[in-house]
Amino acid sequence: MDGRDKGRPDRLDWPPGSHRNGMSRPHRVHVKSFGCQMNVYDSHRMADTLAPAGYRETAEAADADLVILNTCHIREKAAEKVYSEIGRIRVLKEEAAAQGRRMVIAVAGCVAQAEGEEIIRRAGAVDLVVGSQNYHRLPGLLARVHAGEQIVDTEFPVDDKFDALAAPRPEAIASRGISAFVTVQEGCDKFCTFCVVPYTRGAEVSRPVEKIAAEVERLAEANVREVTLIGQNVNAYHGLGADGRPATLGKLLHRLAKVPGIVRLRYMTSHPRDMDDDLIAAHGDLPALMPYVHLPVQSGSDRILAAMNRRHTRQDYLDVIARLRATRADLAFTSDFIVGFPGESEDDFRATLTLVEEVGFATAYSFTYSPRPGTPAADMEDQVPDEEKSDRLQRLQAVITRQWRAFNGQFAGRTVEVLLEKPGKLPGQLVGRTPYLQAVQVMAPRLLIGSVVPVTITEIGTNTLFGALAEQPSTRELTAAGA
Ligand code: SF4
C-alpha cells in the first residue's frame, strides 16, 4: 500500500444514502473555508450543489465523509499552511478508516488552482484537487473518486460555473442569517505585481444581471435583508443586462435596489480605476446602498504605485474620494495598505502616511509586503529589510487606529439606523450593524430581527457600540415584523 492508499477502506458507499448494510443515511460534508468572503460564498454553493447528491453539512470534520478545504493563496506561506491542514485531516481519515468508514479529502480554491498535481504528489491522502472554476462538477468528480480515481481538475472551463452551480437552498439561506454575500464577478485583469489573483482566478468574468437578480430575489424570500455583492475586482463588473448590453455595477445596484425586502446593499472589493460615473451616481441615488466604501489604495507614493502596476496615481485616488464625497456627504472609507514593497523608501512611506491623514479612513487593513511565488514583485531587487517593514507597519497602524477611534467616537449620543441581525449574549439583547458595519448591542424584542431600527448610541466599546432603541416599537410594528 503506498501513501495514496492510506486510510482507504476497500468497500465504498456510493452513491450517498446507499449504505452497505442496507441502512440509508445521508453523507456528511464538512467545508472549511480560508480567506475571503468569495471563498465563503463558494463554500456555500458547493454545499448547495452537493445537497441533491445526498450530502448534508456537518460542522465537525471528524464526522464527515467528505472534507473540502477551500483554500486561499493570499497570505504568506499559504501552500505550507494547507499541507499542514491536510496532515491534520489525514489523521481523521485514518481514524475513520479504522472504523470502516471512508473519508474523502478534497482541496479546492486558490491553492488548489496554483499547486494542482503537486498537492497529490506531496499529500497522497488527498483524493480530489478541484480548481475554483469547477465546483459545479463536484458530484461527477466525487463519483469518479468513489470509483477509485484520484483526480486533479484545475482547468478554466468554457462553461459558466455559476449557471451550473445549484441555487442557494431556502433552509440553508435561513441558517446563514439575514446578511448574504453574492458573487457577481470573478477574476482580475489588472495584474498588480504583488498579487496572485489573476493567476489563480483567471480573467474577469461577470454574471448576467437577471441571474444575479433572481438569486437576490430568492435570498429576499428567505428573509435575507442585506446583500453584499462580491468580486475580486467587483467594480469592473460588466455582466449582460436585460437589454443585451453589458451593464455597469451601478446599473446592477439600481436593479437590485428594486428587489422587495432588500434594505441594504454593499459591494467589495473595488479598484480605484473602475470607480465609474454610474457607480458614483448610484451612491447619491440609492438609499439602500450603504455609505461605506472599501477602496484599496495600497500606497500613497506614485513611484510605488507604478512599481505595483496599480494603474492609478495618488491624485487619481484622491479625486475619486472627492467625487464620492461630493455625491454623498456621509460616505466613509476603508482601504488596504502594503508597507515595505520592494524599493519603498522612507519618503515613499511618508507619502502613504500623508495620504491616510488627507483622506481620513474609518478603518484600514495594513500588511507588510511578503513575496508571493510567481508574481513579478517576488523577483524585484531592493527588498526592504524586515525590521524596516515592521517599524513602518507600526507607525501606519498607529495613525489608522487613531482615525478608527475618532470615527467610532463621533457616534456617542447619535441616533443611527441599525439592522438587527441576531440574538446577543444576554437575554433580551440583539446584535445589529450600523450602515458602517459597526456592531451594536441593544435590548430589543426578538421579533425585530431583520428590521432596521433607530438606535441611540450610549456607549462606545472596543469592538462594539452599545445603544438603546430610540423609539419603542408599537404592537402593530411588532406584529408586522413577525409576520
Ligand atoms: S486589482 Fe486586486 S485582485 Fe486584481 S491584481 Fe490587483 S490586487 Fe490582485
List keywords for this structure.
6-stranded parallel beta sheet; 483 residues; 19 strands; 20% strand; binds iron/sulfur cluster; 5-stranded mixed barrel; alpha/beta
Structure in a nutshell:
Helix content is 35%, strand content 20%. The chain is of the alpha/beta class and 483 residues long.
Q: What's the structural blueprint in terms of helices and strands?
A:
Elements: E1 27-33, H1 37-50, E2 55-57, E3 66-71, H2 78-98, E4 104-108, H3 109-115, H4 117-122, E5 128-130, H5 138-146, E6 151-153, H6 161-164, H7 170-175, E7 179-183, E8 185-186, H8 197-200, E9 205-206, H9 209-221, E10 226-230, H10 249-256, E11 264-268, H11 277-285, E12 292-294, H12 302-307, H13 314-327, E13 332-339, H14 346-359, E14 363-368, H15 386-409, E15 415-423, E16 429-433, E17 439-443, E18 452-460, E19 465-469, H16 475-482
Parallel strand pairs: 1-2, 1-3, 3-4, 4-5, 5-6, 7-10, 10-11, 12-13, 13-14, 17-19
Antiparallel strand pairs: 8-9, 15-16, 15-18, 16-17, 18-19
The structure holds iron/sulfur cluster.
Residues 188, 190-192, 195, 197-198, 232-233, 271 line the site of iron/sulfur cluster.
